[in-house]
Amino acid sequence: MNNFQKYTTQIRSHIVLVLLLNNILFILDWWMVEKVFKLTGYWFFAALLVVPLLSLTILPWLTTRYLTQPTKLIWQAILHIAPDTANVPAPDTKHISIGKDLVVSLISHVYQLASVADTIAKTAEKEESNLSHDFIASSLPLPLFVLSKDDTVVFANKPAAQYINLEQNDIIGQNFYTIVDMAFTNERTFDAWLKDAKANKAVASQTWERVRLNRQDIEQSMQPQFDLAAYYNQGNPEGFETMVVMFDHTNQYSQDDQAMSFVALAVHELRTPLTLLRGYIEAFQEELEGKVSPEMDDFMKKMAVSAGQLSTFVNTILNVSRIDNNQLELQLHKESWPDILQSAVANLRTRAEVRGITLDLKVDGELPIVGVDRVSITEVLTNLVDNAIKYSGTSNKIVLHSYVTREGLVETTVQDFGVGIPESAIPHLFEKFYRNHRNRAQVGGTGLGLYLAKVIVGAHGGHIWVRAHEGEGSTFGFTVLPYTQVAEQGKNGDNESADIVRSAHGWIKNHSMYRR
Amino acid sequence: MDPQQKPASIGKKILCIEDEHFISELYVRALTRAGYDVTVEVDGQRGLTLAQSNQFDIILLDLMIPTITGIEVLRHLRNPEETPSLKAKVIITTNLEQRDDIRADIEKQADGYIVKAEITPHELVEFIDTIK
Asked: What is the pTM of this model?
């Protein structure tokens, strides 16, 4: 017999019992009123009515209570599992009189159903989130690779497959490095980063610029170029340890390369005849010095100086082009500042002398060892002195002065006593191509030198300034940092090299004579 | 310029791989006067063969040269299987500009890097005198 039949039988027997009880009560009532209390008239009827009324209210009430108790308990169970009414206590089946088996079984069904529903909901939620992840990953218009612990590709979206020219199915399960061959601009490669991350980090992320993809089916100059972003999460529970996204910049970078290679080509073409000019002029000087008139000696010197200036200018163009292309890399070494000044002045003195200008150098006291890129900081000095020569007018002296500031920086000033600078022009002096502050017909210049000087000094962590009045000459000054300060700033964990590489803007060393 | 003051140059052999005749002419003149023994080669491949003969102390290597580029010559010279024990110091002499990273890479492999337009032949000699 099942629980429901049991329940109905129980109800049936209860109802029979209740009806019997009711009949007994009626008979008992009539008997008591008539025979025991011997009531008559109105009292007889009133008393006769009270008992049935009582029995008709209390008994059904009791019956219903028993009958509806199971429903109540089931309802309580449902309320108990419903999230909004979870504060309702779990039903207590101890005191059930009728249909206990059915109620217990029904309640247990309710709880079972609830747990099933819960599982379904959770699974659905998970499925849905997977679905949305998949959706995002596949509709991301950027190449995306997901790698497992052993650098195997576990996911690659369509753009990724297209980018490396393989089918999506052929990528999954492959080692990332065998299917994606990347060339980086320096030794901080993806490979090196990932190795380091795996060894030392729980979570890491990194980006790279100008990464080149080596694709066998594309010729060298057309290879895709992109920026790369990677995210690493050690022991990701899903097995997705590394995520790699590529941002294609092939067009932009190849345009840059072309623009750059145009300048590089022009520079190369200019430099070859310059090399020859400087070489032959020097040969003439060696052979003829003292053997020709002093005027001819002077002419040869002027030729040599002019060729040197042209060479400086070629470098300025090149460097400004580098800055425009955001390629800055300064190697800050320990250097003796007086040494750098001496060798720059040795060169520049000839330039000043052919224009009848003396170049004085003053160094105050002991200067600390500085952290500079020798070649580029020499370029700053050259540009400032060239500038001073150009604007010296009829004055015949330029003073270079170096000292330590109160902040402990090494400051160098270049002072001329020439035409000066109108106040209105001062704020624009270090802007690219700015040069209309002085009479253009009187003096030449590109307006690039001071701009370049500012960028280089800035990249050294220093500051460049000018103090001038019209007609009273001008003083340009800049600071460089002692090596100890540079090293402090450059501290980033690995001190394997004593050199500090600075990059901020766009710079290439272009005329270092010696490799250190 | 007096050879007596520059014993560094005595008997030192220099290979100048350079296809611009005017430049090699100037360099040969200045270096010979300083006491160096200079051989000029215009071709990359032949220059490499000469360099591998290991009879030179210093190699001046231009980058834009015929047959194989200076970068390739340098790579062959730095490959121990092809060039087991090169005694010569390799100085890159070029007017070519490359990207910073490429240049750094070349500089790393070479013993020196000179932009020709930056220096006069006399300054080249001064630099070479400092090489031990």
From this structure: 0.56
